[in-house]
Amino acid sequence: MVTRKNPIHSALWLIVSFCTLAVIYLMLNAQFIAVAQVMVYAGAIMMLIIFVIMLVHLEKDIVSERRFSATKFVGGFVTVILLLEILLVSLSYHIPGMEGVYTPETVDSIGNVRLVGGLLYGQYLFPFEIASILLLVGIVGAVVLVRGRRKGNS
Fold it and tell me: What's the pLDDT tens digit per position in 34-81?
C-alpha cells in the first residue's frame, strides 16, 4: 500500500491490509473484532477515503520519478535498518501478559460479541460517538474545501 503512487491503488491495497488483519483477528478467536474490522474499516472508512480522494482529484498531481537518486538510496537504507531493528526487538523481547478484569473464562461464559458490544455501547459510548463526529467533521471539511476551490477556478 505504501509503495503505490496512485492514491486510489493505495486505498485499495489498504482495504486488502484491513481484510488480512481481520483474518488475524479470526485466528485469535476474536470474531466480533474481525467483523467490525471488515465492516467499519474496509467498508465504511475506506469508502469515505476513496470518496474524498476522488473529490479532491489527487490523481492529477501524481508525477512518477523513476530516476535513481542519493535521497532514495539513503531512504531505502534507513528503511531496511529500521525493519531489521524492529525484527530483532520483536524476536528477542518478551512482554509478560497482565491479567485483566475479563479472564478467558469470563469471556467464554459471556460471549465475545456480547462483551465487546456491551463495553462499546455502555462504558465507552461517549468516546465512540466523539470519534464518529470527528470523522463526519473531517469529511464535511474536505467537501467544503473542495467546493470552495472549484468555485474559485470556475
Answer: 888 888 887 777 777 777 777 776 545 455 555 677 888 888 899 899
The domains of the chain are located at 7-92+106-153
Contact 35, 23 (CB under 8 A): no
What's the alpha-carbon Rg for the chain, to the nearest Å? 21
Q: Which grid coordinates are listed for 110?
A: 459471556
Helix orientation angle between 46-56 and 125-153, rounded to the nearest 10 degrees: 20
Taking residue 10's Cβ as centre, other Cβ atoms within 10 Å add up to: 16
CATH topology of domain 7-92+106-153: Four Helix Bundle (Hemerythrin (Met), subunit A) (1.20.120)
How far apart CA 109 and CA 102 sit, in angstroms, is 10
Q: DSSP character for 29? A: T
